[in-house]
Design goal:
By secondary structure, the protein is an alpha+beta fold. Helices cover 25% and strands 45% of the residues. It has one domain (2-140): 3-Layer(bab) Sandwich (Archease, Possible Chaperone, Chain: A, domain 1), CATH 3.55.10.10. The chain is built from two helices and eight strands; from the N terminus they run E-E-H-E-H-E-E-E-E-E. The strands form two sheets. Strands 1, 2, 6, 7 and 8 form a five-stranded antiparallel sheet that branches. Strands 3-5-4 form a three-stranded antiparallel sheet, covered by helices on one side.
Length: 141
């Protein structure tokens, strides 16, 4: 649906909205990707499945974003899109399964912008209201 950036002294805040929880997670990842790269320059040549879990939806959002950053750092890929396959609760934990798409980072091809070090619990917020979902957090850059 949409994402926007929030004012912050030293880092970058993101707020993601969607008509489903899955869509809100996808928009949050897209906001993070857009901070790091020009998304139009990244082809979807490679894909990885990722999983994360946490005690609640807000914490799951942070863990999800950090898992994507881990994959970026360990594979050398630049990601441009994520497709959340499912978010579910089992017993006491929430789980997210998703596929991330991108290609090997090429400094000459990709417009590298800002390095995102981590998604943080600072400014963390989750709301479900009138059939839409909103998630926000601060990214450490």
């Amino acid at each position: 649906m949409s994402y926007e950036y929030l004012e912050h002294e030293a880092d970058v805040g993101i707020r993601a909205k969607g008509s489903t929880l899955e869509e809100a997670f996808e928009e949050g990842a897209k906001a993070m990707f857009n901070i790091m790269f020009d998304l139009d320059l990244i082809e979807e040549k490679d894909k990885f499945n990722i999983e994360a879990e946490a005690d609640d939806i807000a914490a799951l959002f942070v863990e999800f974003l950090n898992e994507i950053l881990y994959r970026k750092d360990t594979t050398g890929l630049a990601f441009s899109r994520v497709k959340v396959d499912r978010i579910e609760k089992t017993e006491n934990l929430y789980h997210v399964n998703a596929t991330i798409y991108g290609e090997m980072l090429n400094i000459r091809k990709h417009d590298v912008k800002t390095e995102v070090k981590a998604a943080t619990y600072s400014g963390l917020k989750f709301e479900e209201k009138d059939g839409s979902f909103m998630l926000q957090c601060i990214l450490d850059v």
